[in-house]
Amino acid sequence: MAGLLTQLFTWWNGQTIGTRFYTWKKGEKVGTDEFGNIYYRTPDKARTAGGFPERRWVVYSGYAEASKIPTGWHGWMHHRVEAPPPSQNYKPRAWQKPHRANPTGTAAAYRPKGSIIGADQRPRVTGDYDAWTPS
C-alpha cells in the first residue's frame, strides 16, 4: 500500500503511475546501469518517420537524481550516440570520474571562505576599500 501511495503522490522517488503505464504500454527496455537505473525507448516507427527522434527515458532506482546517469548512458539519452552502452562496449576515459552524489545541503557541501555557515571567517577588509555612506 505504501508503494502505491508513493507512486501516486511523488515524482522524485522511482516512477509515477503515469510513467509506469506509459512504460508498460509503449516502452522497450534497453538496459540497466550499475546504479540500477533502467533505460527505455519507444520503438515508434511513425514518430521516427516524421523526423522526430525516438523517445528515450530512464526510471531511476530510488530518488530521481540526474547526475546518477553514467557517462555512456548520458550520451545515449541525449541522442549523441545511436547505440546504447551495453551494445557498444563503452569504456570510460581515464579523465572521467565515477559518480559522486550531489553534496548540496549536507555537511560535505562546498562552503567558501567567509560563508555564513562555513567554519572560516571572512578576511578583514584592507585599506583599499572604503564603505559607502549616504551623504
TrEMBL record:
Residues 84-135 are annotated as: Disordered. It comes from the Bacteria. InterPro entries: NDUFA12 (IPR007763). NCBIfam families: PRK08183.1. This is NADH:ubiquinone oxidoreductase subunit. It comes from Kaistia dalseonensis.
